[in-house]
Amino acid sequence: xxxxxxxxxxxxxxxxxxxLQQTVKAGGPxxxxxxxxxxxxxxWPKVSEMYAAAExxxxxxxxxxxxxxxxxxxxxxxDSAEVQAYRQFYERMDWPWPRMGDAKWxxxxxxxxxxxxxxxxxxxKATISEGQGDHDAA
Length: 138
Known about the structure:
Helices cover 57% and strands 7% of the residues. The protein has seven helices and two strands. Helix 2 crosses helix 3 (29-42).
């Protein structure tokens, strides 16, 4: 599940090309876009691999603790308010959003009535952290 990887620290990223460095140095909206796109492409290589595998209908091996933590996820229609809320959260975090292609459904942590994406992500993060602690103790 990509969210578990997105919660990890950014991977070391390659330097931007001189052109992109100059664009960022110039500032403004284009600089923000270039910086965001560079981070989305390079900061989470495992997520990029997961997204590419999904586009090619290839499965991925996921740690059992993460699968267990994801049992509380729900499938949302891509046009739903919940998916829009998750998409906005991803944008605020500069996280890469999956290319959806023809997909009509996507799974995310269930947003409880009166809840928020931020709260559900934090709950998921705590759940997988507990699972990793249990795994390390074994």
